[in-house]
């Protein structure tokens, strides 16, 4: 059974997709841009602040699904500039301290709204 996950504590989708989908024991969180919930403002020009906002958005969606970062099994990070990897990673490490899920990070040509970062994840709901 599929369940749509939606919360006002994270930005609404900027296209025809859901914030997350729960499928069985897995929660698939759509890529989170560094948009400020309720304002629609994009955090841009500071990769650390942008990474934090993207992770806070994902955190709110996970919470709505009854999960936390400790339940995340896979993360994908998309960066518009791979030279900012170390700064992104510094903030990321503050959210995944003891539990470290599998992860991939890529540089991409562009992201929606020309964001600096987008982060998606998959969680396993116990």
From TrEMBL:
Gene3D superfamilies per record: RutC-like
Top-level taxon: Bacteria
InterPro entries: RidA, RidA_CS, RutC-like_sf, YjgF/YER057c/UK114
Homology family: Belongs to the RutC family.
Name by which UniProt lists this protein: RidA family protein
